[in-house]
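Is this the right way to post structure tokens for a design question? Let me know if I should format differently. Anyway, here goes:
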């Protein structure tokens, strides 16, 4: 069975990069710096992922968390896998600050209006992330 990105993830995110078989995507909501990792697999639970997928994902979770911590001044880094609405396995790594419109609540389904990224802002995140990952 070939991998196909869930349409909701495709609609809500922007592709940034691929490291091995893990897509690094950014949520279209620019109110928070919200990465979504998607391993190119049809498994839906962490425990069903191959050890290689788990290892690759853990490395990327760590790298994105360090990126958020070292290159931005976030008060908290949220990590989550829920998947009740989007069944395809994906992992959220979100930089949170007390000044974001959702603080201290969750980012899902919040009332604050969506803020879209400009193309230049997406390019800047891609560039900064590429530099950081190249270290």
């Amino acid at each position: 069975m070939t991998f196909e990105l869930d349409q909701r993830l495709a609609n809500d995110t922007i592709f940034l990069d691929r490291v091995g078989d893990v897509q690094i995507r950014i949520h279209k909501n620019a109110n928070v710096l919200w990465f979504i990792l998607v391993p190119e697999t049809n498994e839906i639970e962490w425990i069903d992922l191959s050890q290689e997928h788990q290892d690759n994902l853990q490395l990327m979770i760590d790298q994105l968390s360090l990126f958020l911590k070292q290159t931005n001044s976030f008060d908290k880094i949220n990590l989550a896998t829920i998947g009740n609405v989007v069944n395809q396995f994906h992992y959220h790594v979100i930089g949170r600050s007390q000044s974001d419109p959702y603080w201290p609540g969750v980012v899902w389904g919040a009332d604050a209006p969506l803020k879209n990224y400009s193309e230049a802002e997406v390019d800047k995140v891609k560039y900064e992330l590429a530099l950081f990952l190249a270290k």
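Format looks fine. Someone answered above. Worth noting: The helical segments are 7-12, 51-71, 119-133. The chain has a mean pLDDT of 91.
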